[in-house]
Amino acid sequence: GALAGPGDGIRLGEVVVHPSVETELGYQSNVHLLDEPGEADTPNDSWLRIVPQVKAEKNGGRARFALHALYDWRKYAYNTELDSFSDFEVGAAVNVNEERALSLALENRTRAQSRPSELDLYGSHRRLSNSARASTIYKPGTALEVKPSAFWYYDKFTSSGTNQVFAEKHTTGVAADARWAFLSRTVLALTGEGGQVRYTESVPLPA
Q: Strand, coil or helix: what is 120?
């Protein structure tokens, strides 16, 4: 059977499922992101956005597994060429030995987006991205926590109409976070990150 309480999700055996739906109604005065908005037939427009999503978690022994997926639907009132019916995100994560001094965390997330905020000057475009990270967490007590990690990010920007590749890049690197709590209300936090960005495809930016 399925059992649920307020904010607890839906429990199906050892799996807890959290379904949800977000809605957004917006208006923009320059939906085509033009230097001269008057060049478009209908520069001003409103849109409706609906984002259903589901998350599932399972605790099994010393490991905790999590999966999530969402679908991002967007419809414009007049500029139908900007409608988006294929945006999505899927991800997975696993945490091992969270209750012990040394634990491991792995996560991966893939997302497809139409007209994201990056590279607005390209106009209508799509972005396919993937982020992966592996972390170890050293926590010998309640006062100290050290978290080194390694990551890989992938981004590919293409034209919505022709699938021309604007840019494709890989970002790899390492990071470290450390927190030390001392006295009664004092926490010292240190964060560092370094890596390499490599473009396997790119085109010149418009002048």
A: helix
Name which of 123, 134, 130 is nearest 166 in CA terms.
123
Rounded CA-CA distance 46/192 in Å is 41
Can you read off the two tokens belonging to residue 32?
């085509």
Asked if pLDDT for residue 158 goes beyond 60, the answer is: yes
Residue 200 host element (H or E): strand 186-202
Show Cβ contacts of residue 183 under 8 Å, excluding neighbours closer than 6 positions.
Answer: none
Give the pLDDT confidence score for residue 117 in this predicted structure. Answer: 47
Give yes or no for a contact between 174 and 200, defined as CB atoms under 8 angstroms apart.
no
**Which residues share a beta bridge with 156?**
128, 168
The Cα-based distances of 197 to 56, 73, 123 in angstroms read 33, 31, 24
Quick check: 44 and 65 in contact, CB under 8 A? no
HSE (CB half, 13 Å, CA atoms) of 124? 13
Using the predicted structure, report yes or no on whether residue 120 has a pLDDT greater than 50: no
Sheet of 186-202: strand order equals 2-5, 9-12, 15-28, 45-60, 63-76, 84-96, 102-114, 125-138, 144-159, 165-182, 186-202
Percent of the chain with pLDDT over 90: 58
Residue 118: its H or E element: none
- The alpha carbon of 181 is separated from its chain's Cα centroid by a whole number of angstroms, namely 30
Q: How far is CA 168 from the centre of its chain?
A: 18
